[in-house]
Amino acid sequence: MKRIQLLALSLLLMAGCAQGQSKDYTFAKLPQLKSGEAVATFAGGCFWAMDEGMNQLKGVREVISGYAGGTTKSPTYEQVCTDATGHAEAVQVYYDPQVITYAQLLDAFFAGHDPTTLNRQGPDTGRDYRSIAFYRTPAEKAEIMAAIKRTNDSKHYANPVVTEVEPLTVFYAAENYHQNYFALHPDQPYIQRVSLPKVEKLRKAMVGHLKNNTALTMNE
Question: Where are the strands (E) in the chain, listed by range?
Fold first, then answer.
């Protein structure tokens, strides 16, 4: 029985972010930008972990999971999973730059996933899981390049950063069932085994910028 359970868990993790969801195909709506607010967009593997990690930072009002970096208009999750749209799973972060800076968001981004694995994050493989930092201005591009240099110079990772640096052309909000998925499904095996360690890694790196310093714990 234990062997069967381990096999089932292995298959679950191999399926990765693509499994275990309800089939509500209603798309989320992008929030209106408030006065003095800024927005940033990142792709770092399955968006469930990045959504939760960014949401835990002071100065972040809202995070929307979605798709960016490709050519297909208004893609569905199923289309993105085929790896034929060019899109990656991404998050759009609405934040107050007076409370948290773009450079600090970049530090959180590079801490919250492995930016050194090409087209892969843990059990999730394919270009839809690639690492991308999107910029809207030349100043943001310069900050991304500086953050990549910081990360490489720190030797935190054994291999160099392979994160793509791209101008943002369009961001499509994902289906509603993906929004706040981590918070709504804390006991889901993929969340426990794959997403939670990534969120904890981000929290550890950003300890001085968290809304809540209470540690997360994995269920046994």
Answer: 38-44, 60-68, 88-95, 120-121, 124-125, 131-135, 164-167, 171-173
